[in-house]
Design brief:
Helix content is 39%, strand content 25%. The protein is of the alpha/beta class. The two termini are 51 Å apart.
Length: 330
């Protein structure tokens, strides 16, 4: 944003039209004029067009204008802000098992819908550290706690099914997230657990992992996505490529509700489509809000020296014009 520190000094620019009036109406009348019979001889001697007689006046105009603008102290104003407060440490623990390939969610399957809604949730946070854990038969930390939201978006966009996605280790997904949060000094520590199935593998069962989370004061918000109805599911046929069949995917909301209860959360959430999933995460977002305040201030970049430089250049050019190029006849 461009502004002047002393805007009232710009009224001095009204001197410019007065200067022109003086030069054009009064100063020229005071000159002594002689008649010559051959105007072409005078013009050939001078080598200047009659329009060039305004050049010194134009340079003085620019010089004076630049000086006045410099006095008004032009500067660029950039708004800055300082965020002060306490954020929340959040781990999103995301199921990437094979069942997440079911096609009952938009735009593509359950996993792609979960990634899309996770980015929407990320866009609503401001002062929080967020990490990403994924789990299938095993659990992995894709991104530790960070407030680099650009990195988080990149990580989320790259999430895909592992080579071995034949199991769902919900307990391991919780335990890995707890390991990332247990040493956090944040006042609030949260796991958002997103899964579409039931625990059928892993060294730690979900209830034991939930007790572990409660020990460290970590709240778990479980979200079960999917339905207990028949859904389209892709299969690879050796001759015909990808084929689709109707299947029923086991769903265990009772365990998710118990996980929520053990960690101090009233209940688990259930979402049967992308729209409802977005609403669920928006509700969780409203329950876990950071406490912070934003202090605004302005940073200024002074640019008046450029106008002083312009005035100096105009002064030099006028001097060179009058001493080297301009020829006046009486």
């Amino acid at each position: 944003m461009f502004e002047f520190a002393h805007q009232h000094l710009l009224w001095l620019l009204l001197i410019i039209p007065l200067l022109w009036l003086y030069e054009l109406l009064f100063k020229n009348k005071k000159r002594i004029r002689l008649n010559y019979s051959r105007i072409d001889i005078i013009q050939s001697c001078s080598g200047h067009s009659s329009l060039l007689r305004f050049l010194p006046l134009l340079m003085r105009t620019l010089l004076l204008s630049a000086l006045i603008i410099a006095l008004a102290q032009p500067r660029l104003k950039e708004r800055q802000e300082i965020v002060r407060g306490r954020g929340i440490d959040i781990i999103i623990s995301l199921d990437v098992s094979g069942s997440m390939q079911a096609l009952d969610f938009k735009p593509e399957n359950r996993l792609e819908a979960a990634k899309q809604v996770a980015v929407e949730f990320l866009d609503k946070r401001l002062n929080d550290r967020i990490g990403i854990v994924v789990f299938a038969p095993n659990a992995f930390t894709l991104c530790p706690l960070t407030n680099d939201y650009g990195l988080l978006r990149h990580v989320i966009s790259g999430i895909d099914f592992p080579e071995d996605s034949s199991g769902t280790a919900i307990g391991m997904g919780i335990a890995t997230a707890v390991a990332r949060l247990k040493d956090s000094d944040a006042d609030s520590k949260v796991i958002i657990l997103v899964t579409d199935g039931l625990n059928n593998t892993g060294e730690i069962d979900p209830i034991t992992a939930a007790h572990l989370a409660a020990t460290y004061g970590i709240r778990i918000y479980p979200v079960g996505i999917g339905t207990d109805k028949m859904v389209d599911f892709p299969f690879q046929h050796p001759l015909y490529g990808t084929q689709y069949r109707k299947v029923k995917i086991d769903y265990d909301m009772d365990t998710l509700h118990e996980i929520a209860r053990l960690t101090g959360v009233n209940r688990a959430w259930e979402a049967e489509d992308t729209t409802e999933f977005s609403r669920v995460l928006a509700e969780i977002d409203s329950l876990e809000k950071s406490e912070f305040e934003i202090e605004h201030y302005y940073r200024y970049t002074e640019i008046f020296h450029w106008f002083l430089l312009l005035a100096l250049v105009m002064l030099l050019l006028e001097y060179l014009y009058r001493t080297l190029l301009h020829v006046e006849f009486p």
